[in-house]
Amino acid sequence: MATKDAPTNDPMLDPVTGEYRVIAPGHTFRSVTEKISRVVLTSHTPVGWFGGLLIAGGGAMLLLTAVTWLFLVGTGIWGITQPVAWGFAIINFVWWIGIGHAGTLISAILLLFKQSWRNSINRFAEAMTLFAVVCAGMFPLIHVGRPWLGYWLFPYPNTMNVWPQFRSPLLWDVFAVSTYATISVVFWYIGLIPDLGTMRDRAKSRLAQYLFGWAALGWRGSVRHWMRYETASLLLAGLATPLVLSVHTVISFDFAVATVPGWHTTIFPPYFVAGAIYSGFAMVLTLAIPIRRFYHMEDLITLRHIDNMAKVMLATGGIVAYGYGMEVFMSWYSASHWEFFMMWNRMFGPMGWSYGILIFCNIAFPLTTLWSRKLRKNVGFMFLISLIVNTGMWFERFVIVVTSLYRDFLPSSWGTYKATRWDYMTFVGTLGLFTTLFLLFVRFLPMIPMSEIRMMLPQAKVRTEPEPLREVGD
Amino acid sequence: MPMREGTYGLLAEFDTPGELVTAAQAAYGTGYRRMDCYTPYPVEEAAEAIGFHRNNVSLVCLMGGLLGLAAMFGLETWISVWAYPLNIGGRPYYSWPAFVVPAYEWTILFAGLSAAFGMLAMNGLPTLYHPLFNAPNFRSGATTDKFFLCLEANDPKFSLTDSRAFLEGFRPVSVVEVEY
User: Fold this and answer.
1) Which residues of chain A neighbour B125 with C-beta distances below 8 Å?
2) pLDDT above 60: residue A3
3) Which of B48, B93, B95, B143 to mutate to test the interface with A (most CBs of A within 10 A)?
4) Residue B58 pLDDT more than 50?
5) What is the pLDDT of residue A66?
C-alpha cells in the first residue's frame, strides 16, 4: 500500500513497531491514578449517567414485575409447553453465561499469556462477568417453578433423607455455575484491593474514606504483601482458566447428553466455549466503546485494544463457523434419518428464519468484514458489529433449544414455540439489571485497575544504575 | 490489645523504584533485617533486596485443591453408594466418571478460595490500623506514585540517629520518624 510508508505524526503509533500503543505516551503514575480515580471521587455525577440509570433501572423494574407475576402465578405465563419445555429461560441462561466468559478469558487466560494490553480492560470485563452471571444464574432458578425450594439442588442432610443424583449433567451445572460465580467474585475482589487502598487514600469525603477503608482491608502496598498477592493472582488466573472452559462444557453437556437430534453431538463442548468467548468479546466491546468515549478514556482503552478484541472475535467466530459446518456435515454423514430431518427443518422449517438470522449475524457479516484492518479500527463499525454478534449468539441458543425440541422423533408429538410478553419482559429486564449494575460499578469503583496500569508505564522499570541523562525529566 | 508507644520506625520516601531498590539492597547488606518496602505496584526487585524470596501461597492453594477434590469425590461416592443409592439406567452405583465433574469444580473452588484467603491471612489482612498510616506523607504517596523504605525500630541494628543518617545517604525526598 502506498500510504503504509508515509510518515505519520500520530502520537498513538509506536515509532519502533508501527503498532498502535497500548497506552498513550506522557502518562505518569500520578496522572493515571488521578484520571481513573476522578471518575469515582468526583462529586459531580454526569447527567448522562443519571439518564442511563433511569433507562436501565426502568428495565430492571420490568424484570421485577415479570418475576413477581411469575412467582404469583407460575411458569404457565411463559411460552414454554410440550415439547418445548426449555424456552427463553434456558436460552437466556446460556447466552448470559457465555457473555460472562470473556471477562474471565481477559482476566485469566490473557494474564497467563502475558498479554499486558488486557490490563486496561480487565477490571470491567470481570465486572461484566459478575453481572452476567447474576443474570444467568437467575434463569434456572426461576425456571424450576418453585424457586423458594432452589436449595434442594445442593446436597445437604434433610428430614426427607434424599440426596441429589450425581450422574445428571443438570446437577453438574449447579456445581459448575456456583463455583464460577464464587471464583469470579473472589478474583474480582482480590484484584480490587490495591485500588481500594488508593481510593481510601485519595477520598476526600468522610463516608468514602470509611467505606473504601473497610473494603481495602488495610492494604498498604508492602512488597511482601505484593509478592504474595501476585502469586495468588497468578494462581487464581491459572484456576479460572480451566474453570471457564469447564463451565460452558458442562452447560453443553445439558444438551449433548440428551438423545434429541441436534443436541446429541460431540462438537458441543468446544463449540459452546468458542461461542461464549465470541459473544463475550462482543459484549466487552459493546460496553467499552461507549465508556471510553463518555469518560474520555481513549488514551487508556486505545484502538489497539479494540483491534485486538476484534481479532479474538475473528478467531473464535471462525471456530463457531466450523461448529455450524460440522453440525450440518454430521447430520448428513451420520446417515440418521432424524438428524437429517432436524437439520432440514432447522434451515427450512417454519422457524428457518431464526437460522438465517444466526448465519447472517455470526458468520456472514462479521467473518467477512473483520478481516479488514481499517474496519477493525473504526470504532462506530465495531460497536455495530458487537451488537450484531450479540444478537446472533442469542439466536444461536434459540436455534439450539427451540428448533431441536419442537419437532423431534414422533410427528404426533410435534409442537411449536411462541414466547409470551412475560418472556420478553424477563429478558429485557435482565438487560436492564445488567446495565444498572454496570452503571453503579463505573460510578462507585475504579473501572480500570490503576496498579496494573502503573506497571505498564515505562518508568515502572527498576533502574539501579545511575540514570541516563534523558531519563531525568524534572 | 495494649496500646504500644514509641517509635515504629524510620520511613524514607523515594521518587523512583530504582532509588528504593538501591537503598533497600544497601540496608540489607549493612545488616538490617526488620524492614519493609511500600510501593504503588509490585516491585519484585525490592522484595528480593530485602531478602523476601519465596512465599507459601502456592502450597496453601494446593492443599485447598486436594481437600476440595477429596471432599466432593468422597461425598458423591458416599451419597451414591451408601446414603441414597439410585438405579439410573442400570449404571453402577459407583459411577466414578460422572463424579469427576463436580469433584473437578470443587477442586478449583477450594484451591481458589485457599489462594485468596490464604494470601490475605499470610499478609495479616484485614488490618485496618497500621502505624505507617500516621506518617504524614505515607498515604498521599504509597498507593499512588511514591516508593518507601521503612527501617523498623525493633531491629537490633536500629538507632534513631545512625539509621536516619544511613537513610539520608541515599538522598531520599524525606525521612520521617513514625510513631505507633
Assistant:
1) 217-219, 225
2) no
3) B143
4) yes
5) 92
Q: Identify the pLDDT of residue A437.
A: 93
How many angstroms separate the CA atoms of A422 and A420, rounded?
Answer: 5
Residues 6+ apart with CB under 8 A from B86: A165, B80
Condensed to tens digits (0 to 9), the pLDDT of residues A13-66 reads: 666 666 667 777 777 888 888 888 888 887 788 888 899 899 999 999 999 999
The Cα–Cα gap between A458 and A183 comes to 32
Which are the contacts of A227, defined by CB distance < 8 A and separation ≥ 6?
A: B42, B44, B47, B52, B55
Q: Identify which of B75, B95, B123 has the shortest CB distance to residue A225.
A: B123
Is there a contact between A227 and B52 (Cβ–Cβ < 8 Å)? yes
A457 CA: distance to closest CA in chain B (Å): 11
- Please report how many Cα atoms fall inside a 13 Å half-sphere around the Cα of residue A389, on the Cβ side: 36
Q: How many CB pairs under 8 A join A and B?
A: 212
Residue with the three cell numbers 541516563: A468
The three cell numbers locating residue A281:
468479546
Write down the ipTM of this complex.
Answer: 0.91
Can you give the pLDDT at residue A5?
A: 47
DSSP H helix total and E strand total for chain A? 18, 0
What does each C-alpha distance from A329 to A276, A339, A352 come to in angstroms? 22, 10, 18
Distance CA B15, CA B36 (A): 16
- From the number of C-beta atoms within 10 Å of its C-beta (0-12, 13-18, 19+), residue A470 rates as exposed
pLDDT of residue A467 exceeding 80: no
Q: Say which CATH class B7-52+130-179 falls into.
A: alpha beta
Q: Which three cell numbers stand for residue A188?
A: 474480582
Domain boundaries, chain B: 7-52+130-179, 57-122
